[in-house]
Amino acid sequence: MTPQLEPFHAITISTIAQRLMAEGRSVIRMEYGQPSTGAPSAALARARAVLDEEDKGYWESAELLARLARYMEETTGVAVSPQQIVLTCGASPALVIALSLRFSPGARVAIARPGYVAYRNTLRALSIEPVELPCGPEVGYQITAAALAALDPAPDGVIIASPANPTGTVIPPEEMAAIAEVCRTRGIRIVSDEIYQGITYGAPARSMLPYDREAIVVNSFSKYFSMPGWRLGWLVVPEDLIGQARARMGNLFLTPPSLSQHAGLAALDCGEELDGHVRTYARNRDLLLAALPSMGLARIAPPDGAFYVYADVGHLTQDSMAFCIRLLEETGVATAPGIDFDPVDGHRFVRFSFAVSTPLVEEAIARLVPWFQAQKVLAPA
Ligand SMILES: Cc1ncc(COP(=O)(O)O)c(C=O)c1O
């Protein structure tokens, strides 16, 4: 039988949200991790100009490859050549390419649980076995060097994500170094998903590249650059994998949209506008964190990055999907059920995305606080 994948449950929530909106209900969309801000203005201007000016055939922008190599060097301190950059249609195909480059069917790859739903499912689709490492609040919901060292037998690989989805937690630099060291010693290959880099609320999140030059780095324009629908991302691959990485991209996906490549190039020079979005997320985060205690939601990992709060609602439900549906129907606030991120304990978690505008976060809090307080009254002692 071919690998069977679970659905993305947040999509079900989103479908219900859209139905409610079509019925005239006011819905606040906190179920998806997508910026509501749109592409930076210079990227939009460039795209508009290109629409009138240029042919849009299959294409790979040499300028974008060079600019991304420079961006990687500026943000990681590691020299990266344009040849090491592979343009992709977002981080999702980049993950497919990275995993199929490093691992054969039957290989075992460690991932954090909770973790991004597509890690488990992409691994399964490629007939690679996910090795789920339970990561609780005591380790910031993140994979540690100690956990990797304790795995017997050693896995063939590991996916690192810092900041992570669904928790927003960041791996500290000394732990990144320790993870790289354990992986080097035990022959574990690292794929580092760095899609939330640039969105942090304290110290910046570190790339894995300075710690492991052999790591494959996955990144995208979907989060910090606020361009999820443009379907543009990139990989950084070590020299010896360049040919095979390009062969995979070419055969499986051809090229990313040419319009997006033009816009993406412009977006790379929009740091001021994009950092303004991060300041908005920081305000949203503060508002939400301040409101959580009055909602009775004390058990969370304060997110150091990304734009999520992953909250334990186990005192109210053991069925996060049913809970999210009821929450949506009764308050108009759409959230993602924990079962997307954790097949074992996710039934008692909910993820809030605060990548919406600050007034919407304020409105969501105004709806959520009385609703949660009413649930507490109804909850068994
Ligand atoms: C951790 C993580 N990796 C990858 C992706 C996929 O992003 P993209 O839109 O670039 O395919 C997401 C999307 O939410 C994500 O959260």
Number of helices: 12
Main beta sheet strand tally, sense and closure = 7 strands, mixed
Strand content: 5-15%
Q: What is the string of helix and strand elements?
A: HEHHEHEHEHEHEEEHHHEHEEEH
Radius of gyration: 21 Å
The SS-based structural class is alpha/beta
As for the number of domains, it is 2
Write the CATH architecture name of the largest domain.
Answer: 3-Layer(aba) Sandwich
Strand order of the largest sheet: 2-8-7-6-5-3-4
Q: Can you identify the CATH superfamily of the largest domain?
A: Type I PLP-dependent aspartate aminotransferase-like (Major domain)
| First-last Cα distance | 46 Å
Helix content: 40-55%
CATH topology-level name of the largest domain: Aspartate Aminotransferase, domain 2
Q: Any ligands, ions or cofactors bound here, and which?
A: pyridoxal-5'-phosphate
Shape: globular
Q: What number is the mean pLDDT?
A: 95
Strand segment count: 12
Q: Flag low-confidence runs.
A: none
Task: Give the C-level CATH assignment of the largest domain.
Answer: Alpha Beta
